[in-house]
Amino acid sequence: MSELREQYAFQGYLWLKGILPRKEVLEFRARFFSTFREANLIAPESDPVEGIYSGGPVNSDLARKILMEVVRWAEYEAFCLLLPIRRFYEDFFGGAPYLHKRKIIRYSIPGDSRATGAHYDLVYLRGGTDNLCTSWIPIGDIPVQQGGLIYLEGSAAWARELEAEYSRRNQHLPYDQRISAYNQNLIGGWLSKDLPTLADQLNTRWLIADYEAGDMVVHSPYIVHAATANFDPTRRMRLSTDIRYQRVRDEIDIRWQNHWSLDDML
Description:
CATH topology: Jelly Rolls
Distance between the termini: 32 Å
Strand content: 15-25%
Largest sheet: 6 strands, antiparallel
C-alpha cells in the first residue's frame, strides 16, 4: 500500500488490474442492459451482457427514465460497495471510507461523436475536501475502439496551479459561485474539447488503454482526463461508472449527497 500511495502521488492515478470479480461485473452489465430492452436500446434477442446497440429508434424518454431508476437500484449501490473497493479505500486512506451518494453510470452508443471534454474532478467538488479519489470502473471490456477514459500524463501539478489561481481570482465571490463549475472562467468545468492541442500546449501526451471487466482506475481530483467516442465495429456499447470515495471524517461536499440526475448541473 505504501508503494501504491507513492505511485498515486507521482502520477495522479492507479490502474488496478483485476481487483474486482469479473463475473460480478459482467452480471451487473447484463442486468443493466436487459432493463433497457423495452426502450429498444439493445438489439432484439441479443445477450444483454454483450450490450449490442439496436441501431434505433430508441425511446429516449423511457431510456432516460430507466437510467435515473438505475442510479437508485440497491444492486447499483451494492456494486459500488463491493468488498474489494471498500477494503482498498480503507487501507489507502488509513481510516473509514465514505462513498458519495452522487454516483454516475453512463453508456455510450457506437457512432455518437459526443464525448466528455478535458477536465479535472475538483472543479465539481470544491465544496469539500480535496483528499478524495474517483474510481472509474469499466463495466465490461472496453478496448480503445470503445473510447473509455484517457489521462493527460503529468497534468495533476498543472491543475493544482490552475485551481490555486481560480481561488485567488474568485475569493471575493459569493460562496456558491466560488465552488461552481459553471461560471465566467469555465464552461461546464471543461478545460478544452481539443485534446491534441491541450497535450501539445503542455508538452505531454494522452494515455489510453484497453480496459477489462474487473479493472478499476483510481485517480486524483486534480489529474486532467477526458473520454473519447465509441467507434466499436461490433456495435457494442460502452458502460462504466465513476464514483467518489473519501475519508468519512473529512469535509463532504453537500451537493454530492443527492442521487445523480441528468439536470443536476454538476
